């Protein structure tokens, strides 16, 4: 039985999957299995994956059903005590699993582990800003307190005990956008997070994000699930309002002003800082300009996202 099950969902990632898979196979901790779920790719992803010859790789194909379905399929197949996810365009440094393993042994009572990430742009690499006070090599944090800026849980930088999914459930397959964030909420309500300050994973920044925002569609179900609970949990309410703020901006950018107005009415504006309070009242054309400036700055590792 492997200690780690590494789940890699793939959909048309021929440009990236080779490096991603190599980074998983190059781990200095070798007690692992790699479960690759091809979610109906139409490019050369399958051929590239099948070019690898390693008995730790288990390859599966499914008709395109979305990343939540692909990851859940991987969870069901997993034999490891801990589950890690690695998106097909992300990258692990060689000591990712070794470091995660060392902390699982140091803190055997813990179930959710995460690490700092590195963001790569065309011009720079940088560490995003975390709302965590650094006191040692790791911190045990409340998910909601620790995710006021960069989310403390990021899909390609976690190790989660498999039994956690038995308690809180898997990815909600009804959600097509931010299905990972919704799962983190359920995990955050049930478990503390061990956050490791060492940078062990890398995310490639997508400069075309403004194009995605212009095509954004809002999924009210994500928030409706927590309508009653957030009234009783101030930390959850504040976190959801941050995500509502992000959704308001994206709805404005996509031209869905009616939804943006409804969402804005649900936000306790006192939970937003001055910058966000100003942004949420700006007209569309100014928001689009600011997002373009923000995306350009991010390529140099400057500034934080206006969405969080």
How would you describe this structure to a colleague?
This protein is an alpha/beta fold and 308 residues long. The protein has helices spanning 17-25, 45-50, 67-77, 96-106, 143-146, 163-168, 179-190, 209-214, 221-224, 229-232, 234-254, 257-266, 274-279, 284-298; strands spanning 4-10, 32-39, 57-62, 82-85, 91-92, 112-120, 125-126, 138-141, 158-161, 193-204. Strands 1, 2, 3, 4, 5, 6, 7, 8, 9 and 10 form a ten-stranded mixed beta sheet that branches. Helix 1 links the parallel strand 1 (4-10) and strand 2. The longest helix is centred in the C-terminal third of the chain and has 21 residues, at 234-254. It is globular.
Shape: globular
Structural class designation: alpha/beta
Largest sheet: 10 strands, mixed
Q: What is the chain-wise order of helices and strands?
A: EHEHEHEEHEEEHEHHEHHHHHHH
What is the share of helical residues?
40-55%
Strand content: 15-25%
SS element count, helices: 14
Q: What is the average of the pLDDT values?
A: 91
Radius of gyration: 19 Å
How do the strands and helices of this protein lay out in sequence?
Blueprint (H helix, E strand, L loop, with lengths): L3 E7 L6 H9 L6 E8 L5 H6 L6 E6 L4 H11 L4 E4 L5 E2 L3 H11 L5 E9 L4 E2 L11 E4 L1 H4 L11 E4 L1 H6 L10 H12 L2 E12 L4 H6 L6 H4 L4 H4 L1 H21 L2 H10 L7 H6 L4 H15 L10
Parallel strand pairs: 1-2, 1-4, 2-3, 6-10
Antiparallel strand pairs: 4-9, 5-10, 6-7, 6-9, 8-10
Helix pairs in contact: 11-12
């Amino acid at each position: 039985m492997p200690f780690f099950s590494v789940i890699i969902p793939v959909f048309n990632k021929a440009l990236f999957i080779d490096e991603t898979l190599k980074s998983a196979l190059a781990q200095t901790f070798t007690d692992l299995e790699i479960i690759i779920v091809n979610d109906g790719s139409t490019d050369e992803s399958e051929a590239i994956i099948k070019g690898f010859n390693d008995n730790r790789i288990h390859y599966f194909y499914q008709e395109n059903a979305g990343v939540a379905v692909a990851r859940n399929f991987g969870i069901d197949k997993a034999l490891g005590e801990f589950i890690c996810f690695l998106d097909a365009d992300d990258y692990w440094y060689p000591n990712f699993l070794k470091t995660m393993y060392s902390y699982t042994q140091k803190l055997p009572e813990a179930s959710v582990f995460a690490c700092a990430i590195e963001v790569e742009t065309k011009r720079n690499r940088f560490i995003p800003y975390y709302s965590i006070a650094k006191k040692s090599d790791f911190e045990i944090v409340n998910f909601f307190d620790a995710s006021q800026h960069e989310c403390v849980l990021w899909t390609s930088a976690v190790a989660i005990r498999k039994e956690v999914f038995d308690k809180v459930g898997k990815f909600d397959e009804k959600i097509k956008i931010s299905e990972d964030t919704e799962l983190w909420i359920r995990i955050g309500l049930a478990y503390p997070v061990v956050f490791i300050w060492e940078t062990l994973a890398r995310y490639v920044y997508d400069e075309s994000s403004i194009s995605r925002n212009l095509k954004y569609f809002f999924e009210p179900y994500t928030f409706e699930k927590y309508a009653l609970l957030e009234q009783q949990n101030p930390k959850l309410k504040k976190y959801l309002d941050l995500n509502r703020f992000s959704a308001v901006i994206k709805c404005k950018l996509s031209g869905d002003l009616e939804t943006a107005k409804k969402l804005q009415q649900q936000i306790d504006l006192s939970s937003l800082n001055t910058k966000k309070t100003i942004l949420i009242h700006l007209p569309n054309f100014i928001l689009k300009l600011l997002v373009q400036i923000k995306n350009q700055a991010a390529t140099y590792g400057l500034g934080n996202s206006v969405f969080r």
